[in-house]
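Translate structure to sequence.
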């Protein structure tokens, strides 16, 4: 049996994607469990998309299986869409009637969405998902 050589550029993109997904997962857990910031509804949905990516991309990186990106991309696209909506809510572009967070729970656009007083979590999430999307599509384009 002969092994198929995995293109280095694609393998590096896969490993970097795993590292980013793992850091995002650990960061979300740190923010919630250590800093005590309760996630809003949209944050929960983004976590649902991000947390499995750390496992999927980790296994794909460990085994050198580039097909793992096929399983990751749907979660990344869903997470990107939710993060984009959350960013619009945070920016005040989405009217209050269309916001999914209630007054009783954590706000989707309130102070709880800013880390260390300067970093808006919805924007960081959107940047993370967009970075993953780029890493798992651009190096894989047929050229």
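Result:
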């Amino acid at each position: 049996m002969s092994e198929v050589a995995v293109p280095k550029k694609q393998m590096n993109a896969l490993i970097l994607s795993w590292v980013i997904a793992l850091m995002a997962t650990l960061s979300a857990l740190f923010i919630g469990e250590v800093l005590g910031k309760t996630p809003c509804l949209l944050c929960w949905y983004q976590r649902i998309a991000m947390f499995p990516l750390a496992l999927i991309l980790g296994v794909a990186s460990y085994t050198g299986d580039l097909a793992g990106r096929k399983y990751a991309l749907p979660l990344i696209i869903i997470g990107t869409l939710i993060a984009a909506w959350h960013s619009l809510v945070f920016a005040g572009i989405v009217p209050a009637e269309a916001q999914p967070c209630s007054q009783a729970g954590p706000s989707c656009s309130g102070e709880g969405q800013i880390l260390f007083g300067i970093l808006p979590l919805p924007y960081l999430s959107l940047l993370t998902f967009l970075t993953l999307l780029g890493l798992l599509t651009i190096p894989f384009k047929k050229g």
